[in-house]
Design brief:
single chain; 303 residues; alpha+beta; 6-stranded antiparallel sheet; 4-stranded mixed sheet; 18 strands; 22% helix; globular
Amino acid sequence: MMKVPARIWRGCLGVSLLLIAGSGCYRPPASRSAADEPVAVQYLNIPTRSPEAIGGKAFAKRISAPDIFEREGEICRQILAGNVPSFSRTLTPVRFRGHADGKDQMITLFVACDYLAIGSTEDYFYAPLTPLAAQFLATRLDCTLPTSGMVDLIYEAAELRLKPQPIPPSDSMTTVAVFLQHNDSVRAQIAATGLQRSPETLVAGHKKDLVISNKIYDHHKNTGRVVIYGWHRGPGLPIQPEYNGHHENYADYSHGVRLIANEMLINGKVFRIPDILKNPALAPLLTNGGIIRKPFYPAKAFF
């Protein structure tokens, strides 16, 4: 298993403040030494949000019909049109030291500050997606989904760590009504911290991640799989281990889609994450194991 590096920091500025309110904890980014070169924030390649774009709650009501393919097509259209809050489009640098290929490595990932959501920064709706829709968006935006190892690193680097808020299992877990219920719970937990977060505040802990894994193409399963991981109670303490018990057309309220730019830096040089995940010498930098043979979900067009 990959050990989370002891030294990990964010590449953007934050407020020197600690806020603890039972439900969540804000931690300022760790300081950097003078030798650490700054790395600029990046952004998803999507349009600026239109002032006339629909808000999150109104959008959720509009997609409440049970047809999942229709729902996900509309979510994808909204995201690609730029109808997302600022924190969903901001890719903040997460930097850490690792050891691979016989030497120390400095790695920089460009990570979405929060899970994909529809709407404005004030009125947003976290949008759980099947892995097919998530992969469609990732491919269109030259991004990847994280590995479980990357989820651990992101949680470790997060300035705002939220507590998991499970809803009792039921047949309604996959409905928009329950998506909204959990959405409101997460927003209430953020509000309880008293933090006025910036678009660059890295937030983690409130969703299970859709992850890239060798378990996507499990030959013991007769249908495509979604692999989920996370809901951390603390560093190295996920409630949900890697799990592929659901089929590829499944999404429930607890699932979140966090995009990561395909381009990453190793010692200042540009590499692509899919190539690193297939490289036996370097894959352990980003995984809780070895290589990932197919670091993607099956392709599916939504429009």
